[in-house]
Automatic annotation (TrEMBL):
SMART domains: PKS_KR (SM00822). InterPro entries: KR_dom, NAD(P)-bd_dom_sf, Sc_DH/Rdtase_CS, SDR_fam. This is Ketoreductase domain-containing protein. The keyword Transit peptide does not apply. Belongs to the short-chain dehydrogenases/reductases (SDR) family. It comes from Rhizoctonia solani. The chain crosses the membrane at residues 249-268. GO terms for molecular function: oxidoreductase activity. GO terms for cellular component: endoplasmic reticulum.
Length: 287
């Protein structure tokens, strides 16, 4: 059934909207600003508490070409257009690189990188046909700095960041009114760290580093860390501001620290991160 919408209300499509995450908070923030929001997730029940009348929940798996394509087509059919498409879906991946399973590595790239690509390929041609629209990616400061025990997650976010920055350039050939925005998130108080399924294998060469590895995989996010609602409000305020143009936005706790680390020589930033998260020096006979 076609959605009843105000023709002036922006139509927003967001991936990865499970309860407790940034996508969920973005849905509420966009809806509060009068937008019609299509919230998506692999499981509808994970969005059951999104009760705002302007939020419509759809099942979408960003690792499936068919699911993403059909989801975008459904939104266009019901709402008539997509004004904002936000690639937010992501999964954690922590642990020593040598201990990662190839299956987990593939799953991380499939969600965190190819999920962005699938949404872009499904929705940007529609925006090009209308000569307007905004595509947004939820990137991460982790994509700009290598962190021990989080290398593959960092690699996936680096790819997502650079993919989006490339789209910022290429979209200029489609229309000056198509904007591509990279939102670089620092620390935000969500359930994301608790979603990590990593367990250090008993055969790991890095067993003596287990406490430090766990501290990276299960970073505690206390009240001093930015709340997802505050993060989402900042993103939505910037997204709805006119005129809209391609840009990179940086929000979250400790953003300034990562900016400083980016300015340091690589060897020095590596030294800092190893001191913070690396653990013990190598044990002779073990590594």
């Amino acid at each position: 059934m076609q959605a009843s919408t105000n023709p002036k209300s922006p139509i927003v499509l967001i991936t990865g909207c499970s309860s407790g995450g940034i996508g969920y908070a973005l849905c509420e923030a966009f809806a509060a600003q009068g937008c019609i929001v299509y919230a998506t997730s692999r499981r509808l029940e994970s969005m059951s508490t999104l009760t705002h009348p302007s939020i419509h929940c759809l099942e979408m798996d960003v690792t499936s070409d068919h699911s993403v394509k059909n989801g975008v087509e459904q939104v266009i059919h019901e709402a008539g257009r997509v004004d904002f498409a936000i690639a937010n879906a992501g999964i954690p991946c922590y642990g020593p690189v040598l201990d990662l399973s190839i299956e987990d590595a593939k799953a991380t790239m499939d969600t965190n990188v190819l999920g962005v690509l699938r949404l872009a390929q499904a929705v940007l041609p529609h925006m090009a046909s209308r000569q307007q629209g905004t595509f947004m990616t939820l990137g991460s400061v982790s994509g700009y700095s290598a962190v021990p025990w989080g290398g593959f997650y960092c690699a996936s976010k680096a790819a997502a960041n650079l993919l989006t920055e490339t789209l910022q350039m290429e979209a200029q050939a489609l229309s000056p009114h198509i904007a591509v925005t990279l939102v670089v998130a620092a620390a935000v108080r969500t359930k994301f760290p608790s979603n990590s399924k990593f367990r250090l294998p008993e055969s790991s060469l890095f067993g003596f580093c287990a406490p430090k590895i766990k501290s990276v995989a299960e970073i505690p996010l206390g009240d001093s860390v930015m709340a997802p609602s505050q993060f989402a409000d900042s993103v939505v305020q910037a997204a709805l501001k006119k005129p809209r143009s391609s840009q990179s936005l940086y929000y979250g706790t400790h953003t300034i620290i990562f900016w400083i680390l980016r300015l340091l020589p690589i060897w020095l930033s590596h030294w800092v991160f190893w001191k913070l998260y690396g653990g013990e020096k190598s044990h002779e006979g073990k590594i």
